[in-house]
Structure formats: structure tokens, C-alpha cells
Amino acid sequence: MSNTIQCPKGTKDLLPEDTFKLQYVEKKVSRLLENYGFKEIRVPVFEYTELFSRGVGETTDVVQKEMYTFEDKGGRSITLRPEGTAGVIRAYLENGMASRPSPVKLWYNMAMYRYENVQKGRLREFHQIGLELIGSDSYLADVETILIGKRIFDTLGIQNIKVNINSIGCPKCRGEYQKVLKEFIGKNLDRYCDDCKSRFEKNPMRILDCKQETCKKLNTNAPQMLDYLCEECKEHFENVKTALKRQDINFAIDSGIVRGLDYYTKTVFEFIDENSGLTVLGGGRYDGLVEELGGTYTPAVGFATGVERLMEMVEVAIGDQIQERKPDLYIVSCEQAENEKATQLAEELRNKDIFVERDLVGRSFNAQMKYADRISAKNLLVIGANELQSGIGKIKNMSTREEKECKLEAEEIIRYLK
Ligand code: HAM
Fold first, then answer.
1. Sign of the CA dihedral 258, 261, 262, 268?
2. For residue 326, what are the contacts with CB-CB under 8 A and spacing of at least 6?
């Protein structure tokens, strides 16, 4: 064992005893997103680095510290995607999706890569199920997006989710706010960490997202963007709040949400798992990103939920209710002629969507019986010399222990199984 290689820090294997639960969640969520008119998109795992530095923002932690960036053999700077939005918008523009009926509603389920300090709920390879609603500046789009987020947790039976929302305004109102914020931070700038100091000129709002305890303390009484919203942003936020209340969405205003990515404007939101304190879903409006990436002005809103964090909650909430598919039938056979019959029958049955297991390693009769039990096969069919000769076997229901004679023909077996 000492010589075996382990998976890289911050990555995780997903084993069969968990994949079926993930598949259950993926099925539920994709169906839900479909009901809201979202269509799945997949984009490359790696993109040109510039996409993220321009899209996510030069001064963000993600871009400055967390990207897996390398030069490929052709000398191009490549980055493993740290998030999905930039790539999806790149694909939207590159594939002329702007000419499709608006809004364009896309969802994805993709692996993301961030070189982070590994800790509970924080991996270096993780997955996000996310969506992007592109081409609407209406508050209705924000509301629908938040509603979908809520429905994901409802559908999976997950409770104790706190919905926090905020507005971080638009470039118009931010100018004024940044001035006051700089005045506030400027008074103590020498006490902030080096990252904050370097962000002071370029992007002072980033300083509010600093995770260092000293900086967090210094930020305690910082002026809040909410108090500086322009009329348009204020009205937009009011509309969002009113509509959410009408839909019975229990939310709180958290003026501290700034989000870790630079593209956000107006509404931002985070869903917190109250048990672990982790953010399980985050998103918001990003009206400037399409333009930033070379398109014409196209407002958009979206979110992503961390699949690993979601799965931990699913495990607690409904883990024991998600059942793995069990074999409908185990065919026991030992000798060559019987094995051939077993192969033929198993093939016919599988073609008809029946889950059949049989021996592939040369186990004895008794060992096969034990194995069938161990894999929880629902029914058992023995094909021995007599059965082969008569063309009739006995199917045993493993839970009732009831046995019934049955022709060794697929149709007849299916009738019995049903
Ligand atoms: P984000 O807040 O960076 O947003 O990530 C969204 C979610 O991904 C987080 O709430 C968390 O559940 C999960 N997540 C993030 N980092 C990790 C990690 N290291 N390990 C495990 N899970 C993690 C975005 O990525 C935006 N692109 C969301 C968005 C879509 N905004 C608009 N559209």
C-alpha cells in the first residue's frame, strides 16, 4: 500500500455507493430546471486565461490566487475553469446565441477548479449545478432565479436554508459609493492586509470580501452600498423584495454580501445551510459581463450551487430514501451448456430493460446463491441440466420465498417478474 498513489489534495473519488444518489439528485434538479425552460449547456474544462481575468475580475481572489493556470505546448495561457458563468457567456457570444429568442436560459452541471485552502466544504475540484438567464433586465428574472434556487432545496427535501439577498448597485451608483468607501478604508489602510492595500485603488469593494480577521474587523462599520443605490437600482431591489415576499420566500437582507466575483450588479444572493454555516448556492445579476466579453449590452442573472455541499445535505435529509436499483433477476448456472442458455436469456431480458445479473467468475452453485443474496437480487432463476432439458425452470421471489414454474423464455419470465 505504501507505494500506491493518492488522489491530489482537494479532489475526491465518487464511488458507486454515492453515484446513484448523485444521479438521483441530478435527475430531480435537471427535471426542475427543464420545467422552468432551461436547457443544458456544456463548455470546455479549460479556456484562455484572459476569459477569467476579464470576466471574473483581475482583483478577485479567484483570479489572483486560485486559478489552475498553465502554458500549453503552443505557448498559450490556459486556465481550468474556476466557475461556469464566464465560459457560458463566451459560448453564448461565440455561437451567436444572442440572436435566439430572449431570454436565453441555460443550465449546466460541470466540474470547477480552484486552488483553495482545503477544508470542510472547500475542494479544489468541485462541481456546480448552475444556470444563466441571459437577456432580461426585469426584476422578474431575479425573482424567478431565486425561486428556482429555493425549489431545488424544496424538491430534495432539504430544510434549514437561509436566503440572504443584497443589492450591490450598478456602475452608475457605485462611483459615489466607492468614494465614501475609500474615505472610510483610507483612514486605516495601513492596518489592512497587503491584498486589501493593493485592491484599494483598483477595486475597493473587494476589500469588503476579505477573509482576514483584522480586515473583517476594520470593515465592521463600513458604509453600505444599499444606502447609495441610484433610483433605478433602488426600485429594482424594492420590486425583487416585494415579489419574493408575495411568493412566501423567507429571505433576509444581508448588506455584507459582495460576492467573490467582479461581474455582479444589482441583486446578489446567497443560500446558507444553517446547520453547517456553508454557502450552498450563490449568484446574482450581472448586467455588464456580456459587454465585458465583447458582446452588446445584455443583462443577465444566474446562480450556481456546489454539488458536493448539496450532496452532504441530501444525505442527511433523504439519504436513506434514495434506493439503488437492485437486480430484478439473478440467473444461476454452472456448466457450459447452461451458461450459454443463461447468456442468451440474460441478453434477451436486458434488451427489454430488465436488470439481470449472472455469474462471470466461475462460482459454485452455493456461492452463486450467496452472491445473489448479497447483491439483493429480487428474484432467482436456476438453470441446471434438468431445466435446460425441460425448458422449464423455477423463479424464486427472494423476499416472499415463493417459487413458481416458468418457461425459460424471456417473455414468460418478464410476465412473472412483473
Ligand atoms: P460562487 O459563489 O463562487 O459563484 O460558487 C457557487 C457555489 O459553488 C458556492 O456557493 C459553493 O456552494 C460552491 N463552491 C464554490 N467554491 C467551492 C469549493 N472550493 N469547493 C466546493 N464548493 C464550492 C459562482 O461560481 C458563480 N459563477 C455563480 C453564478 C452563476 N453567478 C451567476 N451565475
1. negative
2. 355, 375, 376, 377, 378
The answer to whether 16-170+230-320 and 329-417 have equal CATH topology is no
**pLDDT tens digits, one per residue of 262-272:** 999 999 999 99
For 271, the 3-state DSSP assignment is strand
Listed by start position, the domains of the chain span: 16-170+230-320, 329-417
Question: CB neighbours (10 Å) of residue 9?
Answer: 9
- Asked if 143 and 152 count as a contact pair (C-beta separation under 8 A), the reply is no
Q: What is the pLDDT of residues 73-131, one digit of tens each?
A: 999 999 999 999 999 999 999 999 999 999 999 999 999 999 999 999 999 999 999 99
Residue 306 CA to ligand 1 centre (angstroms): 6
pTM of the model: 0.95
Q: Which of 68, 126, 258, 268 to mutate to test the pocket of ligand 1 (most atoms within 8 A of CB)?
A: 126
CATH architecture of 329-417: 3-Layer(aba) Sandwich (3.40)
Whether 84 is in the pocket of ligand 1, judged by its Cβ within 6 Å, is yes
Neighbour-count burial of 92, counting CB atoms closer than 10 A to its CB (0-12 exposed, 13-18 middle, 19+ buried)? buried
The residue whose CA is least distant from atom 2 of ligand 1 is 282
**Measured in whole angstroms, how far is the alpha carbon of residue 186 from the centre of its chain?**
39
- Quick one: 16-170+230-320 is in which CATH superfamily? Bira Bifunctional Protein; Domain 2 (3.30.930.10)
Per-residue confidence (pLDDT) for residue 1, from 0 to 100: 57
Cell of 28: 430531480
Cell matching residue 218: 476594520
- Ligand 1 midpoint to CA 220 (Å): 25
Within 10 Å of residue 72's Cβ, how many Cβ atoms? Answer: 10
Specify the ligand 1 atom closest to the Cα of 84.
Answer: 27
Q: Is 281 in the pocket of ligand 1 (CB under 6 A)?
A: yes
Question: E strand or H helix at 106, and its extent?
Answer: strand 104-113
